[in-house]
Specification:
16% strand; 7-stranded mixed beta sheet; homotetramer; 14 strands; alpha/beta; 13 helices
Chain lengths: 393, 393, 393, 393
């Protein structure tokens, strides 16, 4: 195998770059999870994570799992719902499809509010679907705050408003796996009942734990929920001293979490969000420059909804996204995200979340621009220049 | 907080010591799990792990999860069984209780073959229970190969023999979480249909993934199993290129796994097993010395069944195991395992599995002996001497 | 302090980027330098380093020091020369000045062949100086193969030829601190008597050891040399089992050296050299683009001598190199080298040696281009584009 | 090669165990030594090190070198003395011999006050030697505070007193390489003019830097000193912004130093010293137990002078220290120090300094006791028991 030199530019939208200091914090011998030293690390991580979630409601709970984000979604569904319950899934892309499929497999009925993946959901359609549910069969609304596959974000306040307008009492479950720590998120203010999050995106950690933040209303719903559960059972967790996890705890990840949250607090969450916006906008300007000459274009069509954590790029007809990705990797050591599900081969994705700065995104954009050229993909020149013009302003 | 100096002696029976080279291997930037470099690491880890399991049957499968051992047990049950199925749980201690409870929560019926925790199961009782199941309600037998809580191992061949003698077709599910890589284990030869394992014991890794090794017979049973499942669904996994995991993969753990399996292969599994036995026997000789003068004694009463990965020590009446543990930790920076469930406070446990050598176990035993003295626990002197006599022989 | 996000782009010409795998290799507990495990690591490192030096002459020696490159120069002088000896220093820039000054401080006479730093030495002048030394006072010629301060390399074969043409028997001492592992170097073929090298440049290690590779002729000269020495005394080292070091050995660095040499061998030294040339040429094309519109220009004026490991950039009059560097650092987390000695403030330097790839150098060039703009430095646009055009060709 | 399992017990008296958090702190990408982040780390390290030295005299200086302790001794001599100067070396063992030899090689005259290595120096003999120097030829007294080779410490106040009593103005140079951070040391109070220290003993770092702390009187002497010097020249260093180092700075080591000094401050230097005494005393009690039955004995004969950082053990006639060391290493993964110089083969040494706790030293002592037995060395039993009795008291 030939050696790839230098540091890989990991421009996938998740898992994401891990800051060196987080790797350092995790690089440690085992510790008993009941050791007071660990309990302090754990408790301080929980406090900081709640602050990041803007979660302070009395009676709310935060449950962790040794699991990926998919596990946290399963945990959320089995703890809140009963066999045969209907959930209203707001279509956003590959992941909303996935959660609908998961709900069905777990014995729920998934009703979908359809949407064009390139435009995103219409809150009025959500309101209409809820109004139509006179019988109250819908027990929960499932929304993906930031759809990694399409590079589009959804306004959670607008969804909340639609639910309130419909006067419907369903729980609002939001997937913040690829948004938390990157774009604004406010659990309490937005009236979200269950927030599903993971370690490996904006929290800048390796895959290893995921969690659900649960409102007091959802805690009450949990008491009535009858889907079978054990590994993910919140009631079981609530009996344990850490009030989380069934089984052993991935202690190293909490040393990492403490550090990643310290980094976010040191920079300031507002600055973090502003930086994500700045680097995302630079990326979009590059793509718009490339889109000239019948080149690749932004997958998302509604500028107001373009995600600040990932940009999905749609290839011109007849050109392979994976060929571009392969060139970027093999020749320039840059890892781009591929198209998911039905977007496979026609879309590639540039992650710009987590531990990132200007030269990192510019190096990535330069690799993309060169890879387009090398693959003979028609495109407007000057993408990197456009990004630089914006970033130097 | 006062500083604990030196390296902590982590003498818990799990999670266990992580070799420095494993920590180093895991201390790395993120990589895409579809990157060919990672795929090579992944595939080589799978090959080595199958070799360690002595698992080569055609049609068998190995499924991984981002989860702890509890998650792997849930995965195993939901993939193999249907609502209302009966499982026969062989009582061994705290963990067999746990799996019985889990089965009930998931909608199964758990029938238990009772046993004295200090003596272990009687295979004849297993055979009898199976013979009594004329209706064939029992679909699976659940056995904990090595019961971490009691420090007792169970003969899996004896269980297999009992099942064969009864002519019962139930699946045999074995928990090797605290045995694999420490004491002999042979999946194919012993006719085990599903092996549940985790990363954080004999594999010497942090908590982070767990797995089920599945026989061809169990693969067939899976096709009929109707318990709801999604995150742990083997059918879903089988569609993916890694044939494991739903969702993102904890890539760093596989760099660690590759290294820990390399270490085991370098030492040789027979040498690893012999070393575990040697250090375990040294520990038992120390405990037997202490047991003089009405001191603490080995919890397990059947010498043939004492575990080579953990020793459970029963305190004399009126003396607290946790006081001894606290002294060991606060004064000597030695972390001992506590008593689980009904053994809480009366038992402490010395882990001697994984990355361990003679001075490590002797340092631990010395700390225990001093802690007994400091706490005024009656005991025979010379425990460390007895261990040294054995180890120097 | 505000947090700098993402990985710093360390574009200094030394110390240089350390590959992650080298950091990992060094991240280990202490080992006795007489431990057979270490001796194996040490010996394999020595073998690989000799191969990289193209050093195979019988009777030659390789001596290591716990010291930086300055220490290795002192070691080389005190082991080869006697009080009052004359050394002929070939002027190349800041570092040739430094070695001349060092020679004087150690009791030698330093005679300098002057040269324009922007054009480099004239071999004919070297030949003339040696021919003029009828008395044979000159005992050694001191040449800096790659002058980090000016970004100019010197043809060592041309110097060797000049010495041969003059028929002068002086030793040829070459400084390869910033060239070895980046541009071609052949000790034996080029007739070099002492090669001075260090850990922290092309060998991609932290500062910590340096070395002299000594020809058989120089070994003989050492026997006659009378400058006082102890810490750096080769005779003392030759008595020790490692034939290097007076005092303790920095063991961790040799684990790192073994790994960095493994990386070089894996890539292949020819590929390493070609990569350095490619990234250097991309950098020069960027600078040439900027030089339009009375902008910054390449400091070196002889294109044939421009270094492939570092590019020195001369600012237009009235503009501060340090202001550009400060912007690159504060706003873009890019560390550039400053001007050394008389070049301070008017020159900045872009290191492009060691563990580097295309997006890394492009990210750096983008940061420089933006920093020029932000500081109102006149310059031609399109530097990054020019580099991309070259790299995508 | 067979695998050594578990963590090696590194019981050498230097280099020493490196705390995991120090390794972590050093495991980082390169940083420019002029980067403000590094300057802060550097300055805080200097402040803490001065505090540890009890060094606060106005006009005093602290100079660092990329070098081992031998380099720091050379630096100290060449900066303070002139060719032909006489130094008075106080014999303590292998290292005092070494410094005398170094002085001679550098062009000084070394006059030795002889002493029995097993009993240590007689301060009256020092006073006598100085009184005899009516001509004032002696410019400096060289004392090894803690002689690692013999396991004996010297009372620096007693030496100071002897010098004062003689009314002699020589400089007092003290080697604290193996004492600082382990046993009490007070530069100002004890009137020491130059303190030579290194990174790899009580400071718990890898080999990589060493230093001299210089009193105001010695700073004045430096101005007159005429030994040739360049790499170690304090005058050159004083011109640089860090006031230390000629050439590049080993930045990683200062991240490590900051951490190791933080650990010492967290524990408290008095507690550190008390811990060293406790673990040393336990070691001595073990050796005294072994010395029964014509077994090995403490090399040092004056109990008041036995070092708290290292214990030298003298083998009974006809038994090899190295055979014991080899067994300890090959069979128990315990690294012991060998006998230095004339003690080679007859003495082994147990380091008990730096990052150490009770079970670590007890594990080491157990390995030694078993290795004595395995090698058929006569010895009294119960060494570990004696140490435990003391430590549990």
């Amino acid at each position: 195998m030939t050696r790839k030199t230098g540091r890989q530019f990991f421009s996938n939208p998740g898992p994401t770059n891990i800051p060196d200091s987080v790797l350092r914090a995790m690089n440690r011998a085992t510790i008993d999870f009941n050791d007071p030293e660990f309990v302090e690390v754990y408790n301080s991580s929980v406090r900081s994570l709640k602050a990041l979630l803007h979660m302070a409601e009395p009676g709310s709970e935060l449950f962790f799992y040794t699991a990926s984000g998919h596990g946290a979604w399963e945990a959320t569904l089995v703890n809140l719902l009963s066999p045969g319950d209907t959930v209203l899934v707001l279509e956003s892309g590959y992941f909303s499809e996935g959660w609908a499929g998961m709900a069905e497999k777990l014995g729920l009925v998934a009703q979908t509010v359809q949407a064009d993946w390139r435009r995103g959901i219409d809150p009025a359609a959500v309101e209409a679907a809820l109004r139509a549910d006179a019988a109250g069969r819908i027990k929960a609304v499932l929304a993906v705050h930031n759809e990694t596959a399409s590079g589009m974000a959804m306004s959670m306040p607008a969804i909340r408003q639609a639910m309130d307008a419909a006067g419907h009492g369903a729980l609002l479950l939001a997937d913040t796996i690829s948004s938390l720590g990157s774009i604004p998120f406010r659990m309490d203010d937005w009236g979200i009942d269950a927030v599903v999050g993971g370690s490996q995106k904006g929290l800048m950690l390796p895959t290893g734990f995921s969690f659900t933040a649960v409102s007091a209303k959802a805690v009450a719903a949990h008491a009535q929920a009858r889907l079978p559960r054990s590994y993910f059972d919140w009631a079981e967790m609530a009996k344990r001293s850490h009030r989380s996890f069934v089984g052993t705890i991935p202690v190293g990840h909490f040393y990492g979490l403490q550090e990643s949250l310290r980094l976010i607090e040191l920079e300031g969450i507002d600055a973090v969000i502003a930086r994500h916006h700045r680097l995302a906008e630079a990326t979009r300007r590059a793509v718009r420059a490339w889109s000239g000459n019948a080149g690749p274009q932004l997958y998302g069509l509604d500028p107001a909804r373009l995600s600040d954590s990932v940009t999905a790029v749609l290839m011109p007809d007849g050109h392979s996204a994976d060929a571009v990705r392969k060139t970027a990797m093999d020749r320039f050591n840059v890892s781009l995200g591929g198209g998911l599900g039905k977007l496979n081969g026609t879309v590639f994705r540039i992650g710009h979340l987590g531990d990132l700065n200007e030269p990192m995104i510019l190096g990535t954009l330069a690799a993309v621009e060169m890879s387009l050229r090398i693959n003979g993909v028609p495109h407007g020149r000057g993408g990197v220049d456009a990004a630089m013009d914006y970033l130097a302003a």
